[in-house]
Automatic annotation (TrEMBL):
Compositionally biased tracts (Polar residues): 32-55, 89-100
Protein name: F-box/LRR-repeat protein 7
Stretches that traverse the bilayer: none
Keyword Repeat on entry: yes
CDD domains, alphabetized: F-box_FBXL7 (cd22120)
Tagged with keyword Cytoplasm: yes
Keywords per UniProt: Cytoplasm, Cytoskeleton, Leucine-rich repeat, Repeat, Ubl conjugation pathway
Domain F-box: from-to ranges: 108-154
Length: 488
């Protein structure tokens, strides 16, 4: 088998960028010996001739050359990085490898009797790397594992994964029936793959025109140019997560595409969900460009985009009137003027997070309460300018409010809770963490009126044990988060 492996590596090395010999099973709990005839001269020549349709890609974590069933194996690695391992398809085995010493009537496995549709149903639950491993078991599994119905999504994770190479190998294999284009792939998730670069996104942009969902959260080496390329080449893209990509400052079409499109055609992007959390370099001008090109936005998350101001929110409301969920948590320059702009979204707004926006007071909250009366969720934690008056406006106007977080608001007291309890009968989640002015009286009023309460957070609140027991008696399905060691 060592000779065959050497032959395979030598022949495929000319036609593929990432080739290795046998499998180093560092992440599998069980290991199987590769078939002796897995690398025939015919298969090797096929791999040399067809570069655009390589055999299965297997994503493995970094490991030193190991021993597989007593046989020495080697892996083609570059330092300690993880690479995409390319193998030829197994030869015509009808079932997974069995020991040749067993009698013929004992070599069959019970799993072999499963029909193909049962295998496909099982394979749908496997992550990308495990699915590639299954493709190496036998000829039948190889054909089933590369069924196009299983490759609507690619999900890769890992700090040391050589994700650019993995994406290139996988997309080449998936383009086998439609050269250079993968029409089945709709989702690519490579979150926390810090080695992802623009090169990997260019591969996705060129090969996946039907892409609808892209998540590259935590991939801080990705830049604007690569994101522009994906957005321009994937017209059906609706979900984009670039949270933690500090180099991304804007979402727009490439310049060439913008020139080709006429103003009447509309230089618009179909993105509806956009997460730019921790994109620290995003400024008002960048948000202006995003809003002007992504007019169909319904979900926008701008947590810790610390350079944004009220002016950026004004652009957002002008171009994106359909926003339903918005988060500007920890944007310290957002003030009551910004909330006045957000209030123009009126009844369409369902979710709003303004946590730790220290410049917001009752004035801004009153705008939200007056115009956004269909609000379901509000996170105002750490808004120290919020008082009982602001809570009262929310309670009397937002009657459909289900979740409210007013933790670390020292000016909110029992009077505000009483107004909340008398009006917000649909309230299910309430956080009062670190509210210094809350006492047991306010909690009892809430418990006596909000029977559907499911979660109550009173951590670091000076409330007596009797009040907690009162809440437990009246709201039997409520989970109480507290710091009172006497209550259990």
């Amino acid at each position: 088998m060592g000779a065959n492996n050497g032959k395979q590596s030598g022949s495929e090395g000319k036609g593929s960028s990432s080739i290795s010999s046998d499998l180093s099973s560092s992440t599998d709990q069980t290991s199987t010996k590769a078939p002796k005839n897995a690398a025939t001269s015919e298969d090797s020549d096929l791999s040399m001739r067809t570069v655009s349709t390589p055999s299965p890609a297997l994503i493995l974590p970094p490991c030193s050359p190991g021993v597989l069933n007593g046989s020495s194996t080697s892996s083609s690695t570059f330092g300690t990085e993880t690479i995409a391992m390319v193998h030829t398809p197994p030869t015509s085995l009808t079932h997974p490898q069995r020991s040749l010493r067993q009698p013929r009537d004992q070599q069959g496995a019970p799993i072999d009797i499963l029909p193909d549709h049962a295998f496909l149903q099982i394979f749908t639950h496997l992550p990308t790397n495990q699915l590639c491993r299954c493709a190496r078991v036998c000829r039948r599994w190889y054909n089933l594992a590369w069924d196009p119905r299983l490759w609507r999504s690619i999900r890769l994770t890992g700090d040391v994964l050589h994700v650019d190479r993995a994406l290139r190998v996988l997309t080449r294999r998936l383009c086998q029936d439609t050269p250079n284009v993968c029409l089945t792939l709709e989702t690519v998730v490579v979150s926390s793959c810090r080695r992802l670069t623009d090169r990997g996104l260019y591969t996705v942009a060129q090969c996946c025109p039907e892409l609808r969902r892209l998540e590259v959260a935590g991939c801080y080496n990705v830049s604007n140019e690569a994101v522009f390329e994906v957005v321009s080449r994937c017209p059906n893209l609706e979900h984009l997560d670039v949270s933690g990509c500090s180099k991304v400052t804007c979402i727009s079409l490439t310049r060439d595409v913008s020139f080709k499109l006429s103003p009447l055609h509309g230089q618009q992007i179909s993105i509806r969900y956009l997460d730019m959390t921790d994109c620290f370099a995003l400024e008002d001008e960048g948000l202006h460009t995003i809003a002007a090109h992504c007019t169909q936005l319904t979900h926008l998350y701008l947590r810790r985009c610390v350079r944004l101001t009220d002016e950026g929110l004004r652009f957002l409301v002008i171009y994106c009137p359909s926003v339903r969920e918005l988060s500007v948590s920890d944007c310290r320059f957002i003030s009551d003027f910004g909330l006045r702009e957000i209030a123009k979204l009126e009844g369409r707004l369902r979710y709003l997070s303004i946590a730790h926006c220290g410049r917001i007071t009752d004035v801004g909250v009153r705008y939200i309460a007056k115009y956004c009366n269909r609000l379901r969720y509000l996170n105002a934690r750490g808004c120290e300018g919020l008082t009982d008056h602001g809570v009262e406006h929310l309670a009397k106007n937002c009657l459909k409010l289900k979740s409210l977080d007013i933790g670390k608001c020292p000016l909110v007291s029992d009077a505000g809770l009483e107004q909340l309890a008398l009006n917000s009968f649909n309230l299910k989640r309430l956080s009062l963490k670190s509210c210094e002015s809350i006492t047991g009286r306010g909690l009892q009023v809430v418990a006596a009126n909000c029977f559907d309460l499911q979660l109550l957070n009173v951590q670091d609140c000076d409330v007596p044990l009797e009040a907690l027991r009162f809440v437990k008696r009246h709201c039997k399905c409520c989970v109480i988060e507290h710091t009172n060691p006497a209550f259990f």
